[in-house]
## 1
Amino acid sequence: MEETKKRVFSGIQPTGVFTLGNYSTVRHWPKLQDECDCIYSIVDQHAITVRQTPADLRRQTREMAALLIACGIDPARSILFIQSHVPAHAQLSWVLGCFCPFGDLTRMHQFKEKSAKHPEDINGGLLTYPILMAADILLYQTDEVPVGDDQRQHVELARDIAQRFNGVYGDVFTVPAPRISKTAARVMSLQEPTKKMSKSDANENAVVRMLDEPDVILRKFKRAVTDSEGTIRAATDKPGVTNLMSIYGVCTGKTFGQIEAEFAGQGYGVFKQAVAESVIDALRPVQEEYKRLLADKAYLDGVLKDGAARADAIAQRVLARVYKKVGFLQI
Ligand code: AMP
Ligand code: TRP
């Protein structure tokens, strides 16, 4: 690995099947592999902040690895590993928690949303989630964190923690920055287009999943919520149509201006059909590669084992430095 390359780190939870929203963000990751030194983690420890069925979590973790490779992450050029395989994440998380004010945690959007959604289980992990995420990022001296816009606040918290720690102990951590692609549109729910499309949405019609068959994708788009105006243009008071336009943009590379021109004078029916077809075409090669990879468990497990060993070697060095700085006796 060359020292001069920028270090990039990102994580994704192995919960539920990947959505078109995740794809809109993750499809930018492979392009970074040439210019940067990339590390991608499947964050199973973050996933248990919400109750999971153990067998499903295990299966989905492997599936997520297959899906990321199918999306273009090349294990020969990037490190791909499972978070719980590298103990330093949990270890650093404890230390960083002692450098994070309580109020910073309670004001996080994701904490507010998730605690409203699971009022019966507002556990400590849900609150301290961003500290573990900061540990993920800071353990690798990360320069940039490619994420969707919904994670900006968490990356900023990691940045604050790094600066606070450095302020006390000198330059220990690289201060990370979010890397939010302008074209990584925040994909919204097809049924409630002011909410983000989420893997855990109970309404299946709201979510396009990476492994949905073409007829299912078409049906979901046909049912997508729009408005009564009947013109295809982007506007804040037209969240449904704007969302469909941004999805079409993700899949075809077209701008809002080009899309408006293309569908001028046409109705929502024609437009929805075109959006669905663009999604089906974009997902097809990824789906085929995913199925091929998932059939080869030995290969996948080999990749993950190798990734964990490489990640661990980097993480151990940084953790040892932190332990020394904070005054843990080393014998
Ligand atoms: P998660 O599903 O929360 O593990 O998110 C994995 C990655 O996908 C993160 O970088 C998120 O920012 C991104 N992401 C999740 N949902 C969406 C969405 N609806 N639109 C765009 N990006 C998303
Ligand atoms: N919190 C992120 C999400 O829900 C996932 C994540 C965990 C992550 N650790 C990370 C993203 C580190 C970037 C860097 O999407």
## 2
Amino acid sequence: MHISVIGCGYLGATHAACMAELGHHVLGMDADAGRVAALNQAQAPFFERGLDDLIAKHLATGKLRFTTSYADAAEFGDLHFLGVGTPQKPGDMAADLTHLEAAVRRLAVHLTRACVIAGKSTVPVGTAARLTEIFHELAPARDAVEVAWNPEFLRESHAIADTLSPDRLVLGFEDRHSFAEAALRNAYAPLINAGIPLIVTDLATAELVKTAANAFLATKISFINAMAEVCEATGADVHQLADALTRDPRIGALGMRPGLGFGGGCLPKDIRAFMARADELGVDQALTFLREVDAINTRRRSRIVQLAREQHGSTLSGARITIWGAAFKPRTDDIRESPALDVANLLHEAGAVVTVHDPMALDNARKAFPYLNYDDDPADATEGAELLLHLTEWDDYLDVDPERLRARVARPSVIDARGTLDPASWRRAGWTYRALGRP
Ligand code: UGA
């Protein structure tokens, strides 16, 4: 098939490369000329394992290229995926749909023949219906433009595998057995034939699957972090508690790791946008619990600052603190809504002298927070530190020898927010070790 992908950020760039891998001819379109030039040189605008290689492979096969032109994308594709970002509105909980709507308007005016639009962006329920109206109003092809919704469930750092072998495919259509359904079944034929579960539904349900999924994932994380608060008050160990709970298949083994909570470009803004939409729909009470999910998540960050104060034993003003981790999770350079950097900023505001290490995200962190100190070696970063905070659980930190590190620091004092360091070996090496949710 000839497919265009509108918006080449995390979602769109990955989707474009993966559609080429499935055998289609793909044109990725993004309004950012610098990003498009880099993509045409096989450089994604962010780090994702294997993505640059996959893009290079299909630039070479001729199945993939990138453009800044809406007209080219409209002309090229019979199926257009929308992967434009929907960030949180500044000063508001709702999603900002201005970029998505602007892209839709600019694409629509060039659609002169029958085609299918498949939305992938995470949107408030009802958006697909509204975008359908815009296409029918602005496109020369009018009603021959059919809109479908096909939410994406990829996780950063697993993006290619999640796209090429997802847990499920969800396709939402206004009408069953439409041209749009045939086109999307065709686009995903290799996955459908491989037995990936397929859920075909209406537009609103497809939109809701995505927001409900992220709301559930966020709730699961905040549930175990709420248990961590109870553990801290009772001397119980939340990691052992989680281990015992997740043996029950009804609770499930994945996505319930206690720690510093969730960050990133998706879960935080998606639960807020979901609450804002529920409010508009008059069902705000149905999602009031998500306020608490958000609050529990933020409380983990202030709890770390409180522990830092207790552990340091005096005011944080002038305290030399090293932070391990800047990315919102390991194996990405993404720092959006990073819990680690949020804590770094809280400590900086409290007067601490903060030095941050991260294996991959330092360039992004430096740009966003130029007033923090940075070091690209995890041991060097601790030189003269009075307190070490382990905030993003990169494997690199498991390789650091606490015995040797002790000689570098001013005070051997560590707080493990993610609970992945081995308490016994740190304590044996003479460190004062504390962790969130652990005695
Ligand atoms: C999330 C969802 O997992 C994807 O299914 C979804 O497609 C994506 O958002 C999206 O909406 O685009 P992602 O943001 O890449 O993916 O990250 P996750 O792996 O879900 O982690 C999110 C945050 O939760 C991270 O800060 C992570 O450290 C934290 N987390 C995750 C925990 O604290 N505990 C866990 O058990 C899992």
